[in-house]
Design goal:
With about 130 residues, the chain is an all-alpha fold. Helices cover about 50% and strands about 0% of the residues.
Length: about 130
């Protein structure tokens, strides 16, 4: 959000697509209001407190379901799967082990790509 309106995002709208949008929807937090708050120069602790005051309350089963959706491809339809595959193949040709956007982030950072589905212990919120 701190990069909103800068060339860094290159027109990407994190409030309507991707993992950020999923999290905003899950928490039932208004993305425009959060962005406005962030762009006032707030630090991370202030932002976390702002979100905590406004986010819906959820249980462990809800958090596990969100993790499954993000980490294991969850409820994606065929159009979304094809769009992801095209995006992946453009960035990482021949990398069929990259199955989700979190895998692309890990690949970008040189991290470990985990096999899917993840064990249940990976879904336990801390």
């Amino acid at each position: 959000m701190r990069a909103a309106g800068t060339p860094t995002l290159d027109g990407f709208n994190y409030k309507t697509v991707g993992m950020d949008a999923m999290l905003l929807e899950f928490l039932e937090v208004d993305g425009d209001a959060l962005e406005a708050y962030v762009l006032q120069g707030r630090d991370d602790e202030q932002i976390y407190a702002w979100i905590a005051e406004r986010a819906r309350r959820y249980g462990v089963s809800d958090a596990k379901a969100l993790n499954h959706r993000v980490l294991d491809l969850g409820d994606r339809n065929e159009k979304e799967r094809l769009a992801f595959a095209a995006h992946r193949d453009e960035r990482y040709p021949g990398r069929s082990d990259l199955l989700a956007f979190v895998d692309l982030i890990e690949a970008d950072e040189g991290g470990l790509i985990r096999a899917r589905p993840l064990p249940n212990s990976a879904y336990e919120p801390t």
